[in-house]
Every structure is written in C-alpha cells, then in structure tokens.
Amino acid sequence: MTYPQPRLLAKKVASLAVLTALAISSNYALIGFPNVKLMDVIVFAASMAMGLKFGVSLSILIWIVYGTLNPYGFSLPTLIVVMLSEMIYVLFSGIALRLRGASAKTRVYDSLMLGSIGLFLTLIYDLTTNAFTGLLFYGSVLTGLLTMNFPIPMGIIHEVSNALLFPIATPIMYRAMRGEGVAYFEKNASSNILEKKDASHYRRMLVITALFFSTLLVGETLYLVSLKIQLDTLVKEVESVTLRVSLLVKYDNDTETWFNNTVVPVGWTLLNLTTYDLRGRVNYEVYSFGISVTGINGVGQHENYYWLWYKWNPEEQDWVTGETGPDAYLLKNGDVLAWYLADVSKYPNIDKP
C-alpha cells in the first residue's frame, strides 16, 4: 500500500516513538541482567525495515533518553561514544538484506546468519566502546579492553545474548514493521516482490511486548522509588549517629598526611579519631590531668619538638591550639583537626600546621 506523504511521515514518527519507548522500557526492565538488551536488535531490525535514516534517528533518540536517565549515571563523553557506536547496527543492517537473496535457503540458515551478524556487530561495538572508555577515563586503550571481560565478563554476556536475540527477534520485528507475514526475506521468484500476507498477529505481538515491558518499567520504577526512600531514611538514621571529620598529621620535616571526611560515631574523641586513622600507630602517656601523645606513626618527640594538636577555625581562617587533652575533646561534625610535631622552643610564636 502506498501512503500519501503526510500520512507516511506520521506513520514513521509514530513508529519512531513506539520503538524508542520499547527499547528504553526493555532496557529498564532488563536492568537486573547486565548487558542483556533488546535495544540493539530493535535498532538493527528497524534500520532494515525502515531505512538507514530511520535507524540513525532511532538510535540517537534512544541514547539521548537512556544515556541521560539511567541508574549508571550521566557522562557526556560516554554518551557520545555509545551513540556513535550504536550506528554500527544501523550501517550493517543492509548486509542481511544483501546476504539473503532469492535462492532457496532454510530458516536454519537465516538463524545462523542473523546470530553471526549479531555476534560480530556486538563484538565490534564492545571493542569500540571499551577502547574509547579506557582512553577517556584511564588514559589507556588496553585498560579499557581488559575491563571489557574482567573482573566480570560483561562483553561476553553482551555478545552471546545478542547472538541469541538477533535470530529470534529480528524476523518478528521486521515483519511487524513491514506488514509482511512471509518467511524472513522470502521473495516470490516470478515477481521478485515480497509476498504480502496478514501480519496483524505480528503487530499485536509487538504492541503486547511494548505493553509488557512498559508495565515492568512502571513496576520497577515504583520499586526503585521505594528503595530510594528506604535508603534516604537509612542515611538520615546513620547521619544522626555519626560525624564526618578530617585530620591532618604534619611532621617536623613538613611532610603532611590527610585523612579526609572520616566517618566516626558520635561521642568519639580526638584520641579515638587519631588511633583509628593511624591504625593504632599512636603512642601516649597517661597523666593525672589527661593523656599526652608522644608519638604518631612511629615518629616520636625529640629535643624541642612535641606533638601538639590544632583545630581549624573557619571564621578566622587560622589554626587554633587545642585547649584540652586529645582524650577530652569530643568531635563535632565537620571538624578539621591537626597534629603537628612543632618546635616549642619558639614559644609563644610556635609555628602552626
């Protein structure tokens, strides 16, 4: 059937919207199965049935939405890389049409061909995306390629799943989009025109599949929202009984070691924090007036150099000498504290951290 131009455009736009929704919803629905996606086969089949321009538009639209709103976070360089790499499925979609000629072939042949194409294209996609990801984030293409299957074989899962999905889903989707019920690319030998048959059941299958994954998406979204609420509640409960503090240890040779944003229980003292951050490598002596630290990380007091502690005053933008023993100072949320092996012979002008 030949459609008028406006109607044909409306049909393509509607098909673009439905397939985009199907791809994105199935991605979310299959989020528990890493690297198992219907998106690639949807793009591949749509490109064969509707043309390269349609396939390019579909893949860009899918990645703009899914690449921006997904559980793994947003990264513009990564989005650009995967969007361009997805074009592999679009550009190679015509190969299946050329390979399947008018000669009689078995459906086993079709399945093997589609499985091989799916495996080959996915391998190219994975190599490309992992190489660029390694270069962008690790500065090494080799590192990116190694992480493709280590420590988790994500690449192998992607390639094997597509090798299985392509021969199953491609013929169904192609017939549904083309409105043909014949065998995959089977041609009439006399007219060389694709035989037309009723394909309403294929369209119904496509709609039912879209509704199924959309329902899963809604359910999973509600589940994730519930988990987010529980997580926020748990975080608030943890924050109510914990503190975040930072500690600086500076030696007499001006070497510095920072322990930033250490999470500790409410009620801890500076001595508890120091012992925790330094993994117990703290020496001290107990006096009637409290505790005096004599060594940190194997560096003890010597000559005129003694361990003194300081607290950062954000209002004065300066270090303030501690006025109590480290065992008596109760930590406060956001504290920035320091131990400094200072030369006390300079008193009252002792250097600060």
Describe the structure.
The chain is 53% helix and 16% strand. It has 353 residues and is of the alpha+beta class. The strands form two sheets. It has a five-stranded mixed β-sheet with strand order 2-1-8-6-7. A three-stranded antiparallel β-sheet has the order 3-4-5, with no helix packed on it. A hairpin with a 2-residue loop joins β3 (282-287) and β4. α1 packs antiparallel against α2 and α2 (39-50) packs parallel to α8. It is elongated, with a radius of gyration of 32 Å.
SSE blueprint and pairings:
Layout: H1 5-29, H2 39-50, H3 52-66, H4 76-91, H5 93-99, H6 107-137, H7 141-146, H8 154-178, H9 200-240, E1 242-250, E2 256-265, H10 270-277, E3 282-287, E4 290-296, E5 299-300, E6 305-313, E7 318-321, E8 336-343
Parallel strand pairs: 1-8
Antiparallel strand pairs: 1-2, 3-4, 4-5, 6-7, 6-8
Q: What would you say about this model in short?
A:
The protein is of the alpha+beta class and 353 residues long.
How is the main sheet built? 5 strands, mixed
Query: Which strand-content bin applies to the residues?
Result: 15-25%
Q: How far apart lie the N and C ends?
A: 82 Å
The level of helicity is 40-55%
State the total count of DSSP E strands. Answer: 8
Using the 3D structure, state the CATH architecture of the largest domain.
Orthogonal Bundle
The CATH first-level class of the largest domain comes to Mainly Alpha
Mean pLDDT across every amino acid position = 81
- Series of H and E elements: HHHHHHHHHEEHEEEEEE
Q: Which stretches are poorly predicted, pLDDT < 50 over at least 5 residues?
A: 101-106, 180-199
Question: Which sequence of strands runs across the widest sheet?
Answer: 2-1-8-6-7
Structural class: alpha+beta
Total number of domains: 2
Radius of gyration: 32 Å
CATH level-3 fold name of the largest domain = Arp2/3 complex 21 kDa subunit ARPC3
The shape, in one word, is elongated
Number of helices: 10
